[in-house]
Design goal:
The chain is an alpha+beta fold. The protein folds into 4 domains: 7-195, Four Helix Bundle (Hemerythrin (Met), subunit A) (Up-down Bundle), CATH 1.20.120; 273-396, Beta-Lactamase (2-Layer Sandwich), CATH 3.30.450; 417-496; 497-645, 2-Layer Sandwich (Heat Shock Protein 90), CATH 3.30.565. Helix content is 66%, strand content 12%. The protein is built from 17 helices and 11 strands. The chain has a 6-stranded antiparallel sheet, with helices on both faces. A 5-stranded mixed sheet has the order 7-8-9-11-10, covered by helices on one side. Strand 1 and strand 2 (308-315) form a beta hairpin. Helix 2 runs antiparallel to helix 3 and helix 13 packs parallel to helix 14. The protein is elongated and about 220 Å long.
Length: 645
């Protein structure tokens, strides 16, 4: 696999190449310029040699014309030295100025001619400086011609160098144009075109052309981006191609979930409605068969004190099959196995081995291919099991199994609720019977015992022919019968009393009116405060307590005035006060009738979370106070048995 080429490396390489070319171009121009500057300085010095030659010619002509010869000789010697220095500078160059003579054949030939001419002229000048005869003028003219040719040669070379510099500058202009074009092309090739291709691919993909692919022309970042785009396009194309199928699958899954939710909702609404146990199970089974498509089903309930499952209701089963499956033991067959494991079991009978068919013989004989057994449970207790029977092969998914188990739990909760409601009714009936027995015992039973005793006394009086005793006993019997009749009517009114919410005030007024009508006692009722009305059940217990208190006033108090006060505030406070004979509360425990009456009132008050207080003094009347709170305290589960009792 070849190594990928980084786009950044390409860009850096291009920039480095452009920098090298620019530096080389600038260096060449600088070199040529420096050469031109040195050649120009050489031309200046070479031109100065021509002037110095004329000066030497002039000095040689001045000898013998009045100037001391020694002074002229010194001047000529000094000029010769300067001449040699300038020649040496031209020959070797001076980098500081800069000055140098180009090393070309023409310049070398001109320099050779110059050296020969100077070599011939210099000795003659030295002799003139020593006092000898002067140098002829034509020799100076010939040497000046040599110097002129050297200068012309240098000028020609500098002209060529100038032409070269101009050519280099033109080449730099062309190179700059070519470099700009090359950079634009490379930018288009490496950056702009890949970006345009990617943009075009994205636009086509946005229009739904998922078959678009980008050409992978490089191994740099844009090449990797093109490959990634192609992979993404391929994935999107594949996803779009399978989207319809996946949407159909998802829609089907949602439809199944909605159907299961609808089944659970419908079943929950049905199970929460008031029904008998048989209607509950039959309705549950009918809805279950309609939801699952099973041709037959059954609900079996477990006996509480045995390991037997009873076929309670069934649908789609033949009488023969129902007779064989009427009773099953826990652990027997698929139904018993579901109860034992507390989990749903699905048995496919077709194509199974022999032990399975032996375990489910009745289902095999009836022609069922699949049997489902789901426990009916509530509060971790298995109450039974329901079955679904299929004639053909049926695959049960995990979601369907979970729904069946949820339905089994809902049915178990509904059955347990029915049992608890029935138990509550039984407890309420037993409690009312107990109260009825207590009140009958405290009223009519004692009166009948008194009448029985008076009947025996009447028999003795009749046997003794004692008319006075007979009449007295008859009066006692008549008073006892009237008292029993009043007690019976009071009990009938007591047990027929029914109140609605907020009707306690009207009920008290009715009790006071009845007491005033029966006994002639003057009554008074005072109401104060405001609060949330008591619940009807609480009001009923309050009315029973107040009625018992007024009954005691009627029977024992011998009062002329009864006052009832109702105060509403943080709780309900009731008080029944009379101006009767009163009693000693400590001695009331010895009176069986009074003791039982107080106990009944306290039991009724405790049932609604209230308290009953009795205050009395002999000769100063009696007050019975009842206080009922709004919020009842929760019973303590860790309280001792005697405290809870």
């Amino acid at each position: 696999m070849s190594r990928p080429q980084r786009l950044s490396a390409k860009l850096v390489g291009i920039q480095v190449f452009a920098l090298v070319v620019a530096l080389a171009s600038i260096g060449s121009t600088l070199l040529v310029s420096w050469r031109l500057e040195g050649s120009a300085a050489a031309i200046n010095d070479a031109g100065s040699l021509r002037m110095r030659t004329y000066r030497l010619a002039y000095l040689t002509q001045e000898i013998g014309r009045g100037e001391p010869e020694s002074d002229i000789g010194r001047l000529i010697a000094a000029d010769i030295v300067d001449f040699d220095r300038i020649v040496a500078t031209l020959r070797h160059g001076d980098p500081v100025r800069p000055l140098f003579v180009p090393d070309t054949a023409a310049i070398a030939a001109a320099f050779a001619e110059f050296d020969r001419g100077w070599a011939a002229l210099k000795p003659k000048l030295e002799r003139v400086a020593g006092g000898n005869s002067a140098v002829p003028r034509p020799e100076f003219e010939r040497f000046v011609g040599v110097v002129d040719r050297l200068v012309v040669t240098l000028e020609r070379d500098i002209a060529q160098t100038t032409s070269l510099l101009r050519s280099i500058q033109l080449a730099l202009v062309a190179l700059a144009i070519a470099g700009a074009v090359a950079l634009i092309y490379l930018a288009f090739l490496f950056i702009i075109r890949p970006v345009h291709q990617l943009e075009e691919g994205l636009q086509r993909m946005a229009k739904g052309e998922f078959a678009v692919r980008l050409p992978v022309e490089s191994k740099d970042e844009f090449g990797a981006l093109a490959r990634g785009f192609n992979d993404m396009a391929e994935h999107l194309e594949e996803s779009y191609r399978t989207l319809e199928g996946r949407v159909a699958d998802k829609t089907r899954s949602l439809a199944e979930q909605n159907a299961r939710l609808a089944t659970l909702y419908d079943m929950t609404a049905f199970l929460n409605a008031p029904n008998s146990l048989e209607k509950l199970c039959r309705g549950f089974l009918a809805r279950l068969l309609a939801a699952t498509g099973a041709p037959a089903g059954a609900v079996r309930l477990a006996a509480r004190d045995s390991d037997t499952l009873h076929l309670f209701v069934h649908e789609g089963l033949t009488p023969a099959f129902a007779g064989k499956e009427h009773c099953l033991s826990r652990g027997e067959c698929a139904c018993g196995e579901a109860v034992t494991r507390s989990a749903a079991t699905i048995h496919a009978l077709g194509g199974r081995t022999k032990p399975i068919t032996i375990t489910l013989p009745h289902c095999v004989d009836a022609g069922f291919a699949v049997v489902a057994a789901v426990p009916v449970a509530a509060q971790r207790q298995v109450l039974g099991v329901f079955n679904l029977f299929y004639k053909d092969a049926h695959e049960t998914s995990s979601a369907e199994r979970h729904m069946l188990e949820s339905l089994g739990q809902h049915l178990g909760v509904a059955i347990e609720s029915l049992r608890l409601a029935s138990r509550d009714r039984e407890l309420a009936i037993a409690e009312e019977r107990n109260l009825l027995a207590q009140e009958l015992h405290d009223s009519i039973a004692q009166a009948l015992a008194f009448l029985n005793l008076q009947t025996q006394m009447l028999r003795k009086a009749l046997a003794a022919a004692d008319s006075a005793e007979t009449m007295r006993v008859l009066d006692e019997i008549q008073a006892g019968v009237q008292e029993s009749y009043a007690d019976v009517r009071e009990l009938l009114v007591h047990f027929r009393t029914r109140l609605v919410e907020g009707d306690v005030e009207h009920g008290i007024r009715t009790l006071l009116a009845r007491l005033e009508h029966q006994t002639g006692v003057r009554t008074e009722f005072r109401v104060g405060g405001a609060a949330v009305p008591l619940a009807p059940d609480d009001q009923l217990q309050v009315m029973h307590i107040l009625q018992e208190a007024m009954s005691n006033v009627r029977k024992h108090a011998r009062a002329t005035h009864v006052e009832v006060e109702l105060t509403r505030g943080s709780d309900y406070a009731f008080s029944v006060r009379d101006d009767g004979c009163g009693f000693e509360p400590a001695q009331a425990c010895d009176d069986a009738e009074a003791h039982v009456g107080l106990r009944i009132m306290r039991e009724r008050a405790a049932r609604i979370g209230g308290t009953v207080t009795v205050r009395s003094q002999p000769g100063h009347g009696t007050e019975v106070a009842l206080r009922v709170p709004f919020a009842r305290p929760e019973p303590r589960t860790d309280a001792p048995l005697d405290e809870a009792a």
